[in-house]
Amino acid sequence: MIDKDILKLLSPLKRKYYMTKIVNYFIHGIHCFFIALLSMIVLSKIVSIPYIMNKSIKLFILLMMLTIIFSIYKKPKDIELAKVIDSFGLKERVVTSLENSEDDTVFSSIQKKDTIKHLKDDNLKKNIKIKYPKKTIVSTVVIIFITIIMINISTPSVNRAKDIERDKQIIEKENEDIEKVINEIKEDKELTQTQKKEIENKLRELKKTLDKSKKLEDLDKDILKTKKELEKLREKLKNEEIERLTKELEKIDLTKQLSKEVLNKNKENISKEMKNIEDKLKNMDKKDLQKSIEDLEKIEKSIEDEEIKEAINSLANSLNQNIDNLQNSNIESDLANLSNSLSDSLSSGSCSSKSVCNGISKLEGMVSTGQMSGQASQNGSTQVGGNGTGGTGSGSGTAQGQGQGQGSGSGAGSGSSNESGNGGSNGGLGGNSSKTQNDGGVKDYEKIHAPKNQSGEGYDTQVSGSKGEQGDVDSTQVKKFGDKVGEEVPYNEVLKNYKKSAYEKINTEDIPPKMKDVVKKYFIELE
Fold first, then answer.
1. What ranges does the record list as Gly residues composition bias (predicted)?
2. Residue 226 Cα distances to 223, 366, 391, 420, angstroms
3. What is the value of pTM for the model shown?
4. Which of 51, 100, 245, 511 is the most buried (most CB within 10 A)?
């Protein structure tokens, strides 16, 4: 009974002591967090670490959880509390009472009653105070101050991390847009099941590429490829739509010629044909006019394009209202409206499938966003250049006319630059230097001529011959610009060099962002 009274009196003291320990554990946990945070921020100035704020929050939560687990594990035992209480002047009374908890002797009972008497002192609880680790707190404040300073220091690695974060957000948004397009494609009634499946597979493949990619600008090729596939489908659907439209227009004599112009996509002739239709209508008698109205109303029901449908319906209504006085009516506006509707349907961007058009628009926006997302950061700079000095070149030739003026000549030239070439004879003209180039495994693409220039000075040289009685004198003027006949190299090799040079310019010089986008898109389209 006495032992239970002692434990009961120790219980509030134990709770307060435990709280002081927990406070100390959390102070040390926060200290460790800021040390880890500072280390991570310093590292981020050297190596790109995106989403450092999210990582910091996760790290803080992790350390706090570890602190809670540690504080539970290190929950003070009764004997530890007893030593603390005895340090307040109880002279080991509490420790002795706990050690003799199972001893029922008279002496032990007297000692325990004395312990209970002292434990009832209210000052004991006041003596249990939180001892803040001052050194730890001061060092934590210093670390926080240094962390704030380091956060405001910007480096290329920090900027790259920000670019990665921005690109990731854009990619997530674009994934959502692609998913919306896929859903629209599934519900599109203009597409066949095969077409829907094909488009969905293309877009799903693009989504996988988006998920794997870290840089938005690297996706431009894949996005453009998918966009071109949708554009091909849009063109196919548009052609099919035009064919169906022309078949409907062919059914009546009034618009038979118009159907041919629509099929040929000749907008100018469509406008001219509207004038012919106007003349035909005004020259018809009432019976023929009534038949034409019925024909227009009939084909209007079969036409898919809403604008054309509305224009034909409007024309039919105007004719019906002015059937008795068509000569003085004004049907030019209705015919002009029909002409404009037909021209609009023939334009390259039009398509009966709104989901396909919307998908193309989304992909076009994604390409623009990708080009604007990064200013194509490159580590280091590559300078391409060459220094050369054109040596003095000289040439001489002699020729003697014999018989029909046949002759021979020889010439030689020499020079020095950063490229070496051997002079040779060439039909009496200065020798051309030649260079063997290792293609480095370049594929057998179409080759194009790439001239070279040594940027050296030469001299005007004449090759002349002395003639006999029947010989001719031939003279050749050689330019002094130092031009060399170039060589044929693969197209993709030339494109790669031009692209490299252009990207170096736009990343090292002060060029408007919009112009940078134009240059990048240009080379992407060429590849």
1. 383-414, 421-431
2. 5, 11, 54, 47
3. 0.48
4. 245
